[in-house]
Amino acid sequence: MTIAEPLPTTPEALRPWVAEVRTMSFTDPPEGTFVQLPDAGTKVVLRVTGDGRRDVLAVGPRVRAAYHEGKAHIACAELRLAPGTARALLGVPAAGLVGRVVPLDALPGGAARRFAREVRWLDPREALPRIAEVLPGLLAEQADPARTALLRAGVAALSVRMDRAPAQVQDVARELAVSERQLRNLFTDGVGVSPKHYARIDRVRTVAARAGSAGWSELAAATGYFDQSHMTTDFRALMGVPPRSYFRGRLPATTPCQSIRQP
Predict the structure, then answer these.
(1) Which InterPro entries match (predicted)?
(2) Is there a contact between 153 and 105 (Cβ–Cβ < 8 Å)?
């Protein structure tokens, strides 16, 4: 059985650094295969396994989907870091974590090691108040507010929204008064992937979430693709199957808590 705790409201003190918080526990082996979607986010996961092992892990961006069996007897808290937070907390650019799972106490950032010491022995389902006390003090003096604001404006412009398709990379650079190279450097450091690859991941995740809610050509237009063929090619490249096949065999999505391998 999976117990999904109500999604806690992210405390005000964490909102400059954390985009989303989730707590979950899994008491029985989940049945069947799960899909882990491509994800441009970096997460910090506090996890306790059935045998009592406690991990505080950095889970880097994933550029392609993965398919796997879920795990049982796990409790976890997942902090999805806001763009631009990875270096300040973890001591490395987000690009250095792509496709990786790393214990926080193995990272070079002193803030990461201190954070791991503070939260390792907490119950993941009750850890949020302590995290909200500890994390801001570790980060407040380590981030560049102007650079972070610029990055987050770029992320917002390149993300799919219900009322508009995402902007093009060159238009975003022009709007933010930076060169495309500067924008790429911002994304590589603060998100982990280039602006173009971020936009691809975000579009594919949106197609996976909205499949069946509209016709394929309509969905392609709404998510910023040139046409349905372009959407199908991009989706297959990141998901391993075309949209129609994915939708027919629609697999439940999983979380880093269930799927990360022991580092």
Answers:
(1) AraC_XylS_family_regulators, HTH_AraC, HTH_AraC-typ_CS
(2) no
Average of per-residue pLDDT across 31-50: 87
Q: Side-chain half-sphere of 204: how many Cα atoms within 13 Å?
A: 29
Q: Residue 101: beta bridge partners?
A: 59
Whose structure tokens read 């907390």? 89
What is the torsion angle, in degrees rounded to the nearest 10, for the CA atoms of residue 110, residue 111, residue 113 and residue 119?
160
pLDDT digits (tens, 9 = 90+) for 87-136: 999 999 999 999 999 999 999 888 999 999 999 999 998 899 999 999 99
Asked if 72 and 29 count as a contact pair (C-beta separation under 8 A), the reply is yes
**CB of 37 within 8 A of CB of 208?**
yes
Which amino acid does the sequence have at 263?
P
26 backbone dihedrals φ, ψ, rounded to 5°: -130, 115
Q: Render pLDDT for 208-245 as a digit per residue (tens, 0 to 9).
A: 988 878 889 999 998 989 999 999 999 999 999 899 88
Calculate the average pLDDT of the chain.
Answer: 87
Q: What pTM did the predictor assign?
A: 0.89
Residue with tokens 């006390």: 133
Half-sphere exposure in the Cβ direction for 145 (13 Å, CA): 3
- Rounded to 5 degrees, φ, ψ at 4 are -100, 110
8 Å CB contact between 112 and 70: no
In angstroms, rounded to a whole number, what is the distance separating the alpha carbons of residues 250 and 37?
12
Helix (H, G, I), strand (E, B) or coil at 225: coil
| 3-state secondary structure (DSSP) of residue 73 | coil
